[in-house]
Amino acid sequence: MLSDRIIEQINEQIGRVFAGQSDNNDTSSARNELQKSLRSVVQNAFSKLDLVTREEFDAQQEVLRKTRARVEQLEQELEELTKQIN
Description:
Helix content is about 85%, strand content about 0%.
């Protein structure tokens, strides 16, 4: 899922921020807790958004392209028929 990939990237970035600090139990625990909290916040925010994957977007864009081409074709046919009537 799209949001899972983004959430994982955010978690990795947060992990890199804490990586330079000493890895004692307090720091490690705080890092894990922060990552869990941020993951929850980000998941909640993404669940409220109406997001689509790139593949879904591309598929809809192709449908739109074909529809536009068909409309243009029908407009030309209508224009030709209108000329024939007049």
